[in-house]
Amino acid sequence: MTFAPEPGGAVFPTAVGRCGITWSTDGITSVHLPEETPALLRGLIAEHATGPVVTLDAAPASVREVASRIDALTRGADDDLADLPLDDTRLTEFAASVYAALRTVPPGDTITYGELAHRAGYHSSNMPRAVGQVLGRNPFGIVVPCHRVTAANGNLGGFSAHGGVVTKLRLLRAEGRGEAAAEMPWDLEAAHKALRTADPDMGRLIDLVGHRTPRMRLASSTVAALAESITAQQVSGAAASAIYARLCALFPKALDGPTASGLARLSDAELRAAGLSASKVAALRDLSARSLAGEVPELDELETMDDEAIIAALTPIRGVGRWTVEMLLIFRLGRPDLLPVDDLAVRRGYANLTGRDTIRAAELARLGESWAPWRSVAAWYLWRASEPGRLDATGSGGQSVDRTRRLSTLNS
Q1: What are the chain's domains?
Q2: Which residues carry out catalysis?
């Protein structure tokens, strides 16, 4: 089967940055993860391409499909990419066998260098090192998923792509490693029916957005969940993701995220080097100290507490306000009846929906009483309504939205 009519190369966007791909008539010849600069990425593509480097729109349909699937994987899609054709004519027999074995490791799983050597059929004691060397030369980033290979001692191990272990951790987290996701424990049919009955505008919004299923992120601990929330405050979603990945990289044996004892061992300089401001460092210090003192309930304890009790228990932590806890309640614990009226995007979503310029928090709280016991579901739809252009078809919407304090990216 012919993969493409002629060889070439192109750049394409993903959730971890702009990647590159080159191809021949027989299959993919290379996939490149983001580089430090666009010029470096273009240089690598030009080096590997045996045909013209074109825009993605001008690439063959087969290449566009590959780019789309790689992008989807970096956003959490369940796709092992194992069926994508590789042009391996330039590979040694050893490299080809190792890459083929690695492609059998599904997203969300990891394998050690030694285990991979055995899976490829090599059993001598020096083979894990040889496997590591051939992975360091892997030309098929993501498609041959060397980010899923870890050291035998539990460490993440090395990673040759730009960003090193931080990039590796971002890919693992996108695949659900250490941060699983699940459907919200909500009866959406009942919620939609109740919201439609209570508010025709909400019914219209549900029709516009569609009956999509929100996702809940299954945090490993209260500390990890709050550390990520603190990291995300007052920065864009992309910046928050990068900073939190750098923070997690300081815990090479804890793919589940930061721990209280681990945070206590880190110096301020190490935390600042990860991109955290002085105020966020102070907040993480307080979170760690309170957790080690037994003042921060663990997730299993939170499950037994009502919403207001959880808010009262967690808001004394520096940098953790009511909004932060509401996000934990909705997206980590799946609580169905929270309306975060202090969230600017929620208020703008309601204003967009009803054609208003603005609405105050107290007024939205009063109006939202009719949405009980499904106010979290209503909030999820209002986040969608805050997105520019979402409601243009109805004559409303189009307002810009401040995304610096939103966690709606959890469920885009």
Answers
A1: 8-74 (3.30.160), 93-174 (1.10.10.10), 183-213+335-412 (1.10.1670.40), 220-331 (1.10.340.30)
A2: 146
